[in-house]
Amino acid sequence: MSGENILVVDDEPIIGTAFERELEDKGCNVDSVLSGEEALKTIRSKKYDIAFIDMVMPGMNGIEACKKLKETSPDTILIFMTGRVDKDVIYKDLDFQRAGGKVYFLYKPFLKDEIYEVIEMALAEKAKKEINLTIK
After folding, report:
1. CA-based Rg of the chain, rounded to a whole angstrom?
2. pTM for the whole structure
């Protein structure tokens, strides 16, 4: 993991700061925004390999953000994260998947090793898809 462009979409500034602190040390380029609306503006001007999207945000929620980000940047891997763990999360993660996102169940508060693991899984899946496309 090095050189990836990562976007963090979360209305809690401390989450974006934590991602920046951890991942920039690993050689990743991290930008964080506080809303789905800001994410759309940002992703139009820069290509991202991965975007971590909080499910519950004021204004545009994570599912709406996922749909719009997927339309704007179809190659970006969109990853679900939430601070809520309840029965509604199951339905929200299914909606997130239908919108084009990936669910690796990154629940707050999470450990830095969990972030690395999710990124590695997402990048491995992306590489596998790219290999399959070149073979066809």
Report:
1. 14
2. 0.84
77 SS3 class = strand
Cis bond upstream, residue 13 (ω within 30): no
d(CA 100, CA 102) in angstroms, rounded, equals: 7
Task: Tell me the per-residue pLDDT of 60-95, one tens digit each, with 9 for 90 and over.
Answer: 988 899 899 999 999 999 988 887 666 666 667 677
Cα(135)–Cα(48) distance, rounded to whole angstroms?
Answer: 24
The domain defined by 5-135 folds into Rossmann fold (3.40.50)
DSSP bridge pairs for 9: 33, 53
Gap between the Cα atoms of 35 and 24, Å rounded: 21
Q: How many CB atoms lie within 10 A of CB 114?
A: 15
Query: What are the backbone angles phi and psi of residue 24, rounded to the nearest 5°?
Result: -65, -30
Phi/psi for 83 (5° steps) reads: -100, -5
